[in-house]
Amino acid sequence: MIVEGTGYWASIKTPNTTFEPVYTINLVVEQGVADDFASRGHTIKQMDEGPALVIKRKVNGPNGMIRNAPRLLDQNKQDINLAVVGNGSKVRVQCSEFEWEYAGKSGKSLDLQGVQVIELVEYKAEDGSEFFDDNEEF
Question: Which of 106, 98, 90 lies closest to 49 in space, CA to CA?
Answer without folding.
Answer: 90
